[in-house]
Amino acid sequence: EFEQQQPGRNNTVQEVEFHTQILTMSQWPFQAPPKMNIPSKLNNISMIFRNFYDRKFQNRELNWLYDKGSVVVQTTYLPKAYQLEVSVVQCAILMQLNERDSLSVKELMD
User: Fold this and answer.
1) Which single residue of 23, 39, 66, 81 has CA 20 to 30 Å from 73?
2) Span 40-59, mean pLDDT?
3) Residue 42: CB partners within 8 Å, gap ≥ 6?
4) Strand ranges inside the chain, DSSP E
């Protein structure tokens, strides 16, 4: 249903193909995820989905478990494009490296 509200985009939100799996607490026991700041592009996508979900299910709480997710990224800097499946944390780091050639651990944690 979310995909149908993104006309002509085939699961694409802001140039990113986006899929979710919604699990209930009985299917996946909740554990507090590690705190992390995700890049604005990923955060914007999650907020678009959260708004959709909140409108559809007004009495349910949505928690993002970034440590359980994965992201497929495609390289653009090599002659041949490669797709890499990485964790959300790894994706966040790679997205920051799109902006700069190097980052310290402290910069990554900020």
Assistant:
1) 23
2) 87
3) 16, 88, 91, 92, 95
4) 12-13, 16-17, 70-74, 83-87
